Automatic annotation (TrEMBL), chains A, B:
Membrane-spanning ranges: none
GAF domain segment(s): 68-175
Organism: Wickerhamomyces pijperi (Yeast)
Entry superkingdom: Eukaryota
InterPro entries associated with the record: GAF, GAF-like_dom_sf, Phosphatase_reg/MetRdx
Record's signal peptide: none
Name of this chain's protein: GAF domain-containing protein
Cited Pfam families: GAF_2 (PF13185)
GO molecular function annotation: L-methionine-(R)-S-oxide reductase activity
GO cellular component, one term: cytosol
Family named by the database record: Belongs to the free Met sulfoxide reductase family.
Length: 180, 180
Protein backbone atom coordinates (compact mmCIF):
# COMPACT_ATOMS: atom_id res chain seq x y z
CA UNK A 1 0.00 0.00 0.00
CA UNK A 2 1.30 3.46 -0.77
CA UNK A 3 1.51 5.70 2.30
CA UNK A 4 1.38 9.47 2.64
CA UNK A 5 5.02 9.78 1.55
CA UNK A 6 4.33 7.89 -1.69
CA UNK A 7 6.44 4.91 -0.66
CA UNK A 8 5.48 1.24 -0.47
CA UNK A 9 5.66 -1.14 2.49
CA UNK A 10 8.41 -3.08 0.67
CA UNK A 11 10.62 0.05 0.79
CA UNK A 12 10.85 -0.37 4.57
CA UNK A 13 13.30 -3.23 3.97
CA UNK A 14 15.81 -0.84 2.36
CA UNK A 15 18.83 -0.31 4.57
CA UNK A 16 21.61 1.94 3.25
CA UNK A 17 24.87 0.04 2.71
CA UNK A 18 26.79 2.96 4.27
CA UNK A 19 25.31 2.33 7.73
CA UNK A 20 27.20 0.63 10.57
CA UNK A 21 25.71 -2.52 12.08
CA UNK A 22 24.53 -0.58 15.10
CA UNK A 23 22.82 2.03 12.88
CA UNK A 24 21.20 -0.63 10.68
CA UNK A 25 19.81 -2.57 13.62
CA UNK A 26 18.61 0.66 15.29
CA UNK A 27 16.75 1.53 12.07
CA UNK A 28 15.26 -1.97 12.14
CA UNK A 29 13.92 -1.48 15.67
CA UNK A 30 12.46 1.92 14.77
CA UNK A 31 10.79 0.48 11.67
CA UNK A 32 9.35 -2.40 13.69
CA UNK A 33 7.92 0.06 16.22
CA UNK A 34 6.35 2.16 13.46
CA UNK A 35 4.78 -0.94 11.86
CA UNK A 36 3.41 -2.26 15.14
CA UNK A 37 1.77 1.01 16.14
CA UNK A 38 -1.96 0.21 16.26
CA UNK A 39 -1.28 -3.39 15.14
CA UNK A 40 -0.91 -5.89 18.00
CA UNK A 41 -1.44 -9.12 15.98
CA UNK A 42 1.61 -11.24 16.81
CA UNK A 43 1.61 -13.32 13.61
CA UNK A 44 1.48 -10.17 11.45
CA UNK A 45 4.20 -8.45 13.49
CA UNK A 46 6.59 -11.42 13.63
CA UNK A 47 6.16 -11.96 9.88
CA UNK A 48 7.22 -8.40 9.06
CA UNK A 49 9.96 -8.51 11.74
CA UNK A 50 11.45 -11.63 10.06
CA UNK A 51 11.59 -9.76 6.77
CA UNK A 52 13.26 -6.75 8.39
CA UNK A 53 15.87 -8.99 10.05
CA UNK A 54 16.64 -10.87 6.84
CA UNK A 55 17.08 -7.73 4.77
CA UNK A 56 19.00 -5.81 7.47
CA UNK A 57 21.62 -8.55 7.86
CA UNK A 58 21.94 -9.02 4.12
CA UNK A 59 22.49 -5.26 3.69
CA UNK A 60 25.41 -5.70 6.13
CA UNK A 61 26.81 -8.61 4.07
CA UNK A 62 26.49 -10.92 7.08
CA UNK A 63 25.63 -14.37 5.62
CA UNK A 64 22.45 -14.98 7.63
CA UNK A 65 20.73 -18.14 6.37
CA UNK A 66 17.71 -18.10 8.72
CA UNK A 67 15.95 -15.30 10.61
CA UNK A 68 12.72 -15.71 12.51
CA UNK A 69 10.86 -16.92 15.51
CA UNK A 70 9.79 -19.86 17.62
CA UNK A 71 6.86 -19.30 19.96
CA UNK A 72 5.40 -21.20 22.92
CA UNK A 73 3.55 -24.25 21.56
CA UNK A 74 -0.06 -23.90 22.70
CA UNK A 75 -0.30 -27.73 22.75
CA UNK A 76 2.61 -28.03 25.21
CA UNK A 77 3.12 -24.57 26.75
CA UNK A 78 5.36 -25.54 29.66
CA UNK A 79 8.11 -27.28 27.75
CA UNK A 80 7.97 -26.81 23.97
CA UNK A 81 8.51 -24.16 21.28
CA UNK A 82 6.83 -24.31 17.86
CA UNK A 83 7.94 -22.72 14.60
CA UNK A 84 6.70 -19.19 13.93
CA UNK A 85 7.19 -16.81 10.99
CA UNK A 86 10.70 -16.75 9.47
CA UNK A 87 12.73 -16.16 6.32
CA UNK A 88 15.10 -18.84 5.04
CA UNK A 89 14.92 -22.58 4.41
CA UNK A 90 12.38 -24.98 5.91
CA UNK A 91 12.93 -25.43 9.66
CA UNK A 92 12.31 -27.87 12.52
CA UNK A 93 8.70 -27.63 13.66
CA UNK A 94 9.00 -28.11 17.42
CA UNK A 95 11.86 -27.75 19.92
CA UNK A 96 11.79 -28.94 23.52
CA UNK A 97 13.02 -26.42 26.14
CA UNK A 98 15.87 -28.78 27.02
CA UNK A 99 17.13 -29.08 23.43
CA UNK A 100 19.65 -26.91 21.64
CA UNK A 101 20.25 -23.16 21.56
CA UNK A 102 16.57 -22.14 21.25
CA UNK A 103 15.65 -24.44 24.12
CA UNK A 104 18.41 -22.97 26.30
CA UNK A 105 17.19 -19.40 25.62
CA UNK A 106 13.64 -20.44 26.52
CA UNK A 107 14.63 -22.28 29.68
CA UNK A 108 17.03 -19.63 31.03
CA UNK A 109 15.25 -16.55 29.58
CA UNK A 110 18.77 -15.36 28.65
CA UNK A 111 20.24 -14.53 25.22
CA UNK A 112 22.40 -17.29 23.78
CA UNK A 113 25.29 -15.92 21.69
CA UNK A 114 26.92 -18.98 20.07
CA UNK A 115 30.08 -18.35 17.98
CA UNK A 116 30.30 -22.03 16.93
CA UNK A 117 27.16 -24.16 17.07
CA UNK A 118 29.16 -27.40 16.93
CA UNK A 119 30.57 -26.60 20.36
CA UNK A 120 27.11 -26.04 21.88
CA UNK A 121 25.93 -29.09 23.88
CA UNK A 122 22.84 -30.69 22.32
CA UNK A 123 22.73 -28.32 19.31
CA UNK A 124 19.80 -29.07 16.97
CA UNK A 125 20.79 -28.56 13.33
CA UNK A 126 17.75 -27.63 11.22
CA UNK A 127 20.33 -26.73 8.56
CA UNK A 128 23.71 -28.51 8.47
CA UNK A 129 25.31 -25.38 6.95
CA UNK A 130 24.70 -23.16 10.01
CA UNK A 131 27.94 -22.23 11.80
CA UNK A 132 26.89 -19.64 14.41
CA UNK A 133 23.65 -18.49 16.00
CA UNK A 134 22.05 -15.96 18.32
CA UNK A 135 18.79 -16.60 20.18
CA UNK A 136 17.03 -13.94 22.24
CA UNK A 137 14.07 -14.71 24.52
CA UNK A 138 10.87 -12.71 24.06
CA UNK A 139 9.00 -11.78 27.23
CA UNK A 140 5.65 -9.99 27.33
CA UNK A 141 4.82 -6.94 29.49
CA UNK A 142 4.35 -9.24 32.50
CA UNK A 143 7.68 -11.02 32.03
CA UNK A 144 6.04 -14.18 30.68
CA UNK A 145 8.05 -16.04 28.02
CA UNK A 146 6.22 -15.93 24.65
CA UNK A 147 8.91 -17.18 22.27
CA UNK A 148 12.44 -16.63 21.00
CA UNK A 149 14.03 -14.64 18.17
CA UNK A 150 16.51 -16.90 16.32
CA UNK A 151 19.12 -15.95 13.71
CA UNK A 152 21.54 -18.41 12.07
CA UNK A 153 24.69 -17.56 10.13
CA UNK A 154 26.80 -19.48 7.61
CA UNK A 155 30.00 -18.01 9.11
CA UNK A 156 31.61 -18.72 12.49
CA UNK A 157 31.27 -15.84 15.00
CA UNK A 158 28.49 -14.23 12.95
CA UNK A 159 27.19 -12.21 15.90
CA UNK A 160 28.69 -10.11 18.69
CA UNK A 161 27.72 -7.87 21.61
CA UNK A 162 26.29 -5.22 19.24
CA UNK A 163 23.84 -7.75 17.80
CA UNK A 164 22.97 -8.93 21.31
CA UNK A 165 22.24 -5.39 22.48
CA UNK A 166 20.12 -4.35 19.47
CA UNK A 167 18.27 -7.69 19.15
CA UNK A 168 17.40 -7.57 22.84
CA UNK A 169 15.84 -4.14 22.17
CA UNK A 170 13.89 -5.62 19.25
CA UNK A 171 12.77 -8.62 21.33
CA UNK A 172 11.61 -6.29 24.11
CA UNK A 173 9.71 -4.15 21.58
CA UNK A 174 8.07 -7.26 20.11
CA UNK A 175 7.19 -8.70 23.52
CA UNK A 176 5.53 -5.49 24.61
CA UNK A 177 3.71 -4.46 21.41
CA UNK A 178 2.06 -7.82 20.59
CA UNK A 179 -1.07 -9.38 21.98
CA UNK A 180 -0.11 -13.02 22.67
CA UNK B 1 16.90 -31.72 13.16
CA UNK B 2 18.42 -34.72 11.41
CA UNK B 3 15.85 -37.31 10.45
CA UNK B 4 16.20 -41.07 9.94
CA UNK B 5 17.71 -40.53 6.48
CA UNK B 6 20.45 -38.28 7.88
CA UNK B 7 19.11 -35.18 6.14
CA UNK B 8 18.14 -31.81 7.66
CA UNK B 9 14.82 -29.95 7.48
CA UNK B 10 16.53 -27.28 5.35
CA UNK B 11 17.22 -29.91 2.66
CA UNK B 12 13.47 -30.08 2.00
CA UNK B 13 13.81 -26.76 0.16
CA UNK B 14 16.07 -28.35 -2.47
CA UNK B 15 14.31 -28.66 -5.82
CA UNK B 16 16.31 -30.13 -8.72
CA UNK B 17 16.84 -27.61 -11.53
CA UNK B 18 16.05 -30.35 -14.08
CA UNK B 19 12.40 -30.57 -13.01
CA UNK B 20 9.50 -29.04 -14.95
CA UNK B 21 7.30 -26.49 -13.20
CA UNK B 22 4.58 -29.08 -12.76
CA UNK B 23 7.05 -31.55 -11.21
CA UNK B 24 8.55 -28.92 -8.90
CA UNK B 25 5.16 -27.77 -7.63
CA UNK B 26 4.00 -31.38 -7.20
CA UNK B 27 7.10 -32.05 -5.09
CA UNK B 28 6.26 -28.94 -3.08
CA UNK B 29 2.74 -30.23 -2.33
CA UNK B 30 4.09 -33.65 -1.32
CA UNK B 31 6.70 -32.05 0.96
CA UNK B 32 4.04 -29.85 2.56
CA UNK B 33 1.86 -32.90 3.22
CA UNK B 34 4.78 -34.78 4.79
CA UNK B 35 5.61 -31.80 7.03
CA UNK B 36 2.01 -31.30 8.14
CA UNK B 37 1.47 -34.94 9.09
CA UNK B 38 0.82 -34.86 12.84
CA UNK B 39 1.32 -31.06 12.90
CA UNK B 40 -1.89 -29.03 12.55
CA UNK B 41 -0.56 -25.68 13.87
CA UNK B 42 -1.42 -23.19 11.13
CA UNK B 43 1.32 -20.66 11.90
CA UNK B 44 3.97 -23.39 11.81
CA UNK B 45 2.59 -24.89 8.60
CA UNK B 46 2.15 -21.58 6.73
CA UNK B 47 5.68 -20.54 7.73
CA UNK B 48 7.25 -23.67 6.23
CA UNK B 49 4.89 -23.50 3.22
CA UNK B 50 6.11 -19.94 2.49
CA UNK B 51 9.70 -21.18 2.50
CA UNK B 52 8.83 -24.06 0.15
CA UNK B 53 7.07 -21.67 -2.27
CA UNK B 54 9.94 -19.19 -2.27
CA UNK B 55 12.60 -21.84 -2.95
CA UNK B 56 10.50 -23.78 -5.48
CA UNK B 57 9.90 -20.70 -7.66
CA UNK B 58 13.51 -19.58 -7.39
CA UNK B 59 14.66 -23.07 -8.48
CA UNK B 60 12.49 -22.50 -11.60
CA UNK B 61 14.14 -19.09 -12.21
CA UNK B 62 10.75 -17.39 -11.93
CA UNK B 63 11.45 -13.97 -10.34
CA UNK B 64 9.04 -14.28 -7.41
CA UNK B 65 9.50 -11.32 -5.04
CA UNK B 66 6.91 -12.31 -2.41
CA UNK B 67 5.38 -15.63 -1.40
CA UNK B 68 3.11 -16.13 1.57
CA UNK B 69 -0.25 -15.78 3.19
CA UNK B 70 -2.93 -13.46 4.43
CA UNK B 71 -5.43 -14.92 6.89
CA UNK B 72 -8.81 -13.82 8.22
CA UNK B 73 -8.26 -10.98 10.70
CA UNK B 74 -9.68 -12.18 14.02
CA UNK B 75 -10.45 -8.53 14.86
CA UNK B 76 -12.61 -8.08 11.73
CA UNK B 77 -13.45 -11.60 10.47
CA UNK B 78 -16.22 -10.71 8.06
CA UNK B 79 -14.37 -8.22 5.90
CA UNK B 80 -10.61 -8.09 6.47
CA UNK B 81 -7.45 -10.12 5.89
CA UNK B 82 -4.32 -9.74 8.00
CA UNK B 83 -0.71 -10.53 7.10
CA UNK B 84 0.45 -14.09 7.84
CA UNK B 85 3.82 -15.83 7.36
CA UNK B 86 5.69 -14.99 4.13
CA UNK B 87 9.08 -14.70 2.47
CA UNK B 88 10.10 -11.46 0.77
CA UNK B 89 10.02 -7.78 1.62
CA UNK B 90 7.81 -6.14 4.29
CA UNK B 91 4.13 -6.21 3.33
CA UNK B 92 0.83 -4.43 3.93
CA UNK B 93 -0.60 -5.50 7.28
CA UNK B 94 -4.34 -5.59 6.56
CA UNK B 95 -6.42 -5.81 3.37
CA UNK B 96 -10.17 -5.26 3.13
CA UNK B 97 -12.14 -7.89 1.18
CA UNK B 98 -13.13 -5.23 -1.34
CA UNK B 99 -9.54 -4.13 -2.05
CA UNK B 100 -7.15 -5.49 -4.64
CA UNK B 101 -6.30 -8.99 -5.79
CA UNK B 102 -6.20 -10.60 -2.34
CA UNK B 103 -9.53 -9.02 -1.44
CA UNK B 104 -11.11 -10.29 -4.68
CA UNK B 105 -9.92 -13.86 -3.96
CA UNK B 106 -11.35 -13.65 -0.44
CA UNK B 107 -14.67 -12.19 -1.55
CA UNK B 108 -15.26 -14.55 -4.50
CA UNK B 109 -13.45 -17.63 -3.07
CA UNK B 110 -11.96 -17.98 -6.56
CA UNK B 111 -8.32 -17.97 -7.68
CA UNK B 112 -7.17 -14.66 -9.15
CA UNK B 113 -4.58 -15.11 -11.92
CA UNK B 114 -3.37 -11.61 -12.80
CA UNK B 115 -0.90 -11.30 -15.70
CA UNK B 116 -0.52 -7.52 -15.19
CA UNK B 117 -1.36 -6.05 -11.80
CA UNK B 118 -1.62 -2.52 -13.21
CA UNK B 119 -4.68 -3.60 -15.17
CA UNK B 120 -6.42 -5.02 -12.08
CA UNK B 121 -9.05 -2.60 -10.71
CA UNK B 122 -8.14 -1.37 -7.22
CA UNK B 123 -4.79 -3.19 -7.11
CA UNK B 124 -2.93 -2.62 -3.81
CA UNK B 125 0.81 -2.34 -4.36
CA UNK B 126 2.73 -3.46 -1.26
CA UNK B 127 5.76 -3.44 -3.55
CA UNK B 128 5.87 -1.08 -6.55
CA UNK B 129 8.09 -3.56 -8.42
CA UNK B 130 5.45 -6.33 -8.60
CA UNK B 131 4.21 -6.93 -12.15
CA UNK B 132 2.02 -10.05 -11.91
CA UNK B 133 0.33 -12.01 -9.14
CA UNK B 134 -1.63 -15.13 -8.29
CA UNK B 135 -3.89 -15.40 -5.25
CA UNK B 136 -5.62 -18.64 -4.22
CA UNK B 137 -8.31 -18.81 -1.52
CA UNK B 138 -7.82 -21.25 1.36
CA UNK B 139 -10.95 -23.00 2.60
CA UNK B 140 -11.06 -25.38 5.57
CA UNK B 141 -12.71 -28.83 5.59
CA UNK B 142 -16.11 -27.18 6.02
CA UNK B 143 -15.66 -24.76 3.12
CA UNK B 144 -15.05 -21.77 5.42
CA UNK B 145 -12.59 -19.18 4.11
CA UNK B 146 -9.49 -19.08 6.33
CA UNK B 147 -7.11 -16.99 4.22
CA UNK B 148 -5.37 -16.66 0.87
CA UNK B 149 -2.09 -17.85 -0.65
CA UNK B 150 -0.44 -14.92 -2.44
CA UNK B 151 2.57 -14.92 -4.80
CA UNK B 152 3.99 -11.85 -6.55
CA UNK B 153 6.36 -11.78 -9.51
CA UNK B 154 8.69 -9.12 -10.93
CA UNK B 155 7.83 -10.22 -14.49
CA UNK B 156 4.58 -9.78 -16.40
CA UNK B 157 2.61 -13.04 -16.87
CA UNK B 158 4.61 -14.78 -14.14
CA UNK B 159 1.95 -17.44 -13.59
CA UNK B 160 -0.25 -19.65 -15.77
CA UNK B 161 -2.79 -22.48 -15.58
CA UNK B 162 -0.14 -24.93 -14.29
CA UNK B 163 0.55 -22.67 -11.30
CA UNK B 164 -3.19 -22.27 -10.73
CA UNK B 165 -3.76 -26.03 -10.74
CA UNK B 166 -0.85 -26.93 -8.44
CA UNK B 167 -1.33 -23.98 -6.05
CA UNK B 168 -5.01 -24.86 -5.70
CA UNK B 169 -3.88 -28.35 -4.64
CA UNK B 170 -1.51 -26.79 -2.11
CA UNK B 171 -4.21 -24.43 -0.80
CA UNK B 172 -6.63 -27.35 -0.44
CA UNK B 173 -3.96 -29.35 1.44
CA UNK B 174 -3.27 -26.40 3.73
CA UNK B 175 -6.94 -25.73 4.36
CA UNK B 176 -7.61 -29.33 5.33
CA UNK B 177 -4.46 -30.12 7.37
CA UNK B 178 -4.46 -27.05 9.62
CA UNK B 179 -6.44 -26.31 12.76
CA UNK B 180 -7.67 -22.75 12.31
Amino acid sequence: MVNEQGTHHADLTSFASSLTKSETLSQLVETYLALSTDQPNWVCNLSNASSLLWHAYHSLNIPVNWAGFYVIDPKSPTDQLILGPFQGKVACQTIRFNRGVCGAAAETKLTQLVPNVEEFPGHIACDGETKSEIVVPILDKNGVLRGVLDIDCLALEGFDETDKEELELLAKSIGETCEW
